[in-house]
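Narrative summary of target 7.
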Amino acid sequence: MTDPILNITNLYVQYETTAGDVKALNGVSFNLSEEEIFCLVGESGSGKSTLALAILGLLPENATVIAGNITFDEMDILGSTDVQLQNIRGKEISIVFQDAQSALNPIQTIGTQVEEVVQAHLNLSPKAVTSLCQEVLRDVGLSDPNHIMKQYPFNLSGGMCQRVMLASALVLQPRLLIADEATSGLDVTLQAEILEKLKNLCRHFHSSILFITHDLGIVAHMADRVGVLYAGSVAESSDVFSLFREPRHPYTWSLLQALPRLDDVRKVLRPLPGTPPDLINLTDLCPFLPRCSKAITQCRYERKPALESVGPDHHVACYNQISELS
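Modeled conformation, tokenized:
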């Protein structure tokens, strides 16, 4: 494993709302190495997208970083100026958003939007910029890039828009690519093609990927390592094989129990009861406690457990760290 390119340490982020302060991130810590694919998985509202925006310095005005640190290649993201962040966005760190057709500007051509990324960071002639953009559009599977660059987003299908977003994110060969639910809303065939293209291109460019998703199938296909996020905290992190073979946190185990399996057609799916906690009124206890069937006395009286090592590169935030959660 190479040295980490991204380090997130004890990150707390809150949103100020009329109903109260929403505790979106509550002590998130993990790292991402060069040329590694790290998948962050969790339910809607667990803080995945907030984390992506925090890494890019794009949190909305009502968001406040209460504590923690984000370091990208020894650069302090939270302590950087807007100009410093603009210099790395698109060039060193890129993002692919969830809904490509909404993320693209409907009144600008595809060529204008892809070329803008290059023009912001490289001093190239217009002809060289166009040539570079056409090349990366062809790399993501768009066979007629010259025609595509003259189109508007509403002229393209959802899958083509997703490829355009991918091209914009990869055109400068960033060291870190953040994919925030990048394939949601696509059919499974197109999803598999986009995922494979994303994996191959990032291997070719020697980029790292932070892949944010709620789909465990994508995690199994893409990840080198996995972090399971619940109520703004990392419940478990490990390599992808250990997570699926031997989950150690009751939440991870519950997610896998609700997942259909082709190798066991008689398996009875077990839905996870209850709902995620209210992030405005979080207690100091484990946030999964009200939904946990494996809780012990210690869980009900002590503060939320910290991540602890239970094996090689396997960490769990749980007092009931048993290997068989049947």
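The longest strand covers residues 4-17.
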